[in-house]
């Protein structure tokens, strides 16, 4: 008998804009700047993820990563990220359906 994992998939969050991420990295909530490597280490995410978010080659991360990144930058989650929902195969902003 197999036990299926019934936990729902985490909500995905898209970066509002790579430029906003870069701006927030230049002046974090403490007033200091942080490098992409420093942000990755402090948030507990891969350096490649931060680089891809900054370059715009990756837009979406799971909620725990989005919260960690926003937390290190000292901003509210929704200042940097937009919650996403799956609609078929496309990602759409969660608030678009309301």
Low-pLDDT stretches are: none
In order across it, which strands form the biggest sheet?
A: 2-1-3-4
Summed over residues and divided by their number, the pLDDT gives a mean of: 85
Strand content: 15-25%
Radius of gyration: 15 Å
N→C terminal distance = 41 Å
| Multimer state | single chain
Q: What is the N-to-C order of secondary-structure elements (H for helix, E for strand)?
A: EHHHEHHEE
The number of helical elements comes to 5
| Percent helix | 40-55%
The SS-based structural class is: alpha+beta
Please describe the structure with a list of short key phrases separated by commas or semicolons.
globular, 98 residues, alpha+beta, four-stranded antiparallel β-sheet
What would a concise description of this structure say?
It is built from five helices and four strands; from the N terminus they run βαααβααββ.
SSE map:
Elements: E1 12-15, H1 18-26, H2 36-43, H3 47-55, E2 60-62, H4 63-73, H5 77-80, E3 81-87, E4 90-93
Antiparallel strand pairs: 1-2, 1-3, 3-4
Description:
- With 98 residues, the chain is an alpha+beta fold.
- It contains five helices and four strands.
- Helix 2 (36-43) crosses helix 3 and helix 2 (36-43) crosses helix 4 (63-73).
- The model has no long low-confidence stretch (mean pLDDT 85).
